[in-house]
Specification:
Jelly Rolls; four-stranded antiparallel beta sheet; 1 helix; single chain
């Protein structure tokens, strides 16, 4: 996959969420566009999810570390110190979402919650029928589509649809188009959307913020 094309996709930064596609190039010192840098940090009352698309990642969680490979999915609970590094010889491609998005309080670097360094992330691996770790801030689901799937975000809720494999025709409000593997799209608040398989049964990750 050409990551330069992949990261041209974007997600809006709203009060509900921020996120998108990023890369740690081979030989670089950090994630592209990351103003914080590879520093242990936490999000005050906000959760974060990572989907590792390519490469090998060393993920620090509190006072432990673990490694992730393509297809791995991780949810970091609120106020849990974490940091990630490119641990391989290739480009590391990561899709991420933080919710909610506090524009004036994105992160902090000094643990302030008792027991924070003993906290751990929740993990899964992307596959049809996989149970993705979720909470009230970010509800994550795997959809295997044999027919059209449709829904509507609630007032005060947004969603993101990420095509893992296959092809699907996606309509968000009055706009629509065809998405292929590793394409993603944002669904604004109170908006009708639908996902229709083009052929076979594409796998789609669905994120809802807040998760209810």
């Amino acid at each position: 996959m050409d990551w330069r094309t992949w990261i041209r996709q974007s997600l809006p930064r709203t009060e509900i969420m921020r996120g998108g596609a990023t890369v740690w190039e081979k030989g670089a010192k950090g994630l592209l566009g990351d103003t914080l840098g590879p520093v242990m940090h936490a999000h005050d009352q906000a959760s974060e999810v990572f989907y590792f698309v390519a490469g090998r990642c060393r993920l620090e969680i509190g006072n432990s570390e673990e490694f992730s490979s393509p297809g791995d999915f991780v949810r970091v609970p609120p106020n849990t110190p974490h940091n990630l590094w490119n641990a391989g010889d290739d480009d590391l491609l990561v899709f991420w979402i933080v919710a909610p998005h506090f524009a004036n309080n994105k992160w902090y670097t000094e643990p302030s919650v008792p027991g924070a360094m003993e906290r751990r992330a929740l993990r899964s691996h992307i596959a049809p029928g996989a149970n993705l770790p979720s909470n009230a801030q970010i509800q994550s689901r795997m959809l295997t589509l044999n027919a059209m799937y449709s829904g509507q975000t609630a007032v005060g809720q947004e969603a993101v649809l990420y095509v893992v494999d296959g092809q699907a025709d996606v309509k968000v409000g009055k706009l629509g188009g065809r998405l292929t593997a590793n394409d993603f799209v944002h669904v604004p608040v109170d908006t009708v959307y639908s996902v229709t398989p083009v052929s076979g049964a594409p796998s789609v990750m669905m994120f809802e913020m807040p998760g209810g």
